[in-house]
Amino acid sequence: MMTQGKGRALIDLRKVLCVVAIVLMVGCSARGTLGPVILQPPSTVATDTRLFVATNRARIDTPDLFGSDRSLEATYGRLEVSIPLDRAAGTLTYPNPDHPDPAAFGVSQETIYANRATFRQDLNHDLGRNPAGKAVVVFVHGYNTNFAEGVYRFAQIKHDLGIAQTSVLYSFPSEGTASGYVYDLSSVLFARDGLEELLNTIAASDATDIIIVAHSMGAVLALESVRQAALRVRSPALGKLRGMFLISPDVGVDLFASQRQTIDPQTIPICVIASSRDWMLDMSARLHGGALRLGQLTNAASVALTTASVLDISQFTNRASGNHMTVAQSTQLIDLIRNNKTGQIAACATERAEGTVDHVAAN
């Protein structure tokens, strides 16, 4: 019979092996860099996508603008991201300052605002001239993501999925390393006030609706910020928050249930985009003692116990992300969403779909 000490040692060993596996799967690829601003006339081979940004990362004196250190003061800005037209949907090539590549993403203009009032004024200007209306989409990236990677990934998602609404990236101080899981979790807690401040700033603008899209560990941050806003006597953000889309959320199911007790399901619908084939969440589940993560929840009986609707995309895969960013990287799924061939995408965030699971198939 195994002693308690040996059992604990084996559990610890499995956790170590999980970390090693994550490092091997994620840590060997080249990391993203923002690169220098490329001032050039309008091009027929690239298009510019505007992103507003807010972050509690500390400034650094390089073209990448922000590092992994934490800052008590949030910074607000705007970037014009140049996206090559001649590329497959779902693909992203980071710029290399030493070897310019026409197939790479780039930044054609950057603005850092002196204060939130200036940010809000520019946001209002963008809302006023946007034919898609006055809704704002806020994107929160996940674990192991540096500032440049968050910027380019959201720009790619916005472009490839056809998100026409005014868009804002919130970048929390992720360490940007495969071994920085614990640091990133602490940064998520650190960044709760920063994200809530951003949501309140948008709510004070001319925006009529706020939609939050959060990936992986970023879902923890989004849920925590909305939860603490819900605890306020009067929260500006909640009056305009229309829903949350959580992509592969690295959130414990029990934690989500606790957060949902404060976040009203009747006024804030939540859609979970999940996959039973998400390798990264499988690793995370092992690190958390084997408990399923919210982004793995595709069983109808289990989903019925939650106050969220679930979109099961298990039939689509993307090995490059370990099936963890399939929504943004699967050409087949991107085409399905852009061409509106499935009603589940829209139905996922409606109240009638709450507590149900929709399975998205190619046909």
Task: Walk me through the structure.
- With 363 residues, the protein is of the alpha/beta class.
- It has helices at residues 4-26, 116-128, 147-160, 181-190, 192-203, 218-230, 253-260, 279-287, 300-303, 326-329, 331-338, 344-347, and strands spanning 46-59, 66-84, 106-112, 135-140, 166-171, 209-215, 241-247, 270-274, 309-312, 357-359.
- The chain has a ten-stranded mixed β-sheet, with helices on both faces.
- β7, α7 and β8 (270-274) form a beta-alpha-beta unit.
- The longest helix has 23 residues, at 4-26.
List the helices and strands and how they pair.
Elements (H helix, E strand, L loop, with lengths): L3 H23 L19 E14 L6 E19 L21 E7 L3 H13 L6 E6 L6 H14 L5 E6 L9 H10 L1 H12 L5 E7 L2 H13 L10 E7 L5 H8 L9 E5 L4 H9 L12 H4 L5 E4 L13 H4 L1 H8 L5 H4 L9 E3 L4
Parallel strand pairs: 1-5, 4-5, 4-6, 6-7, 7-8, 8-9, 9-10
Antiparallel strand pairs: 1-2, 2-3
Helix pairs in contact: 1-8, 5-6
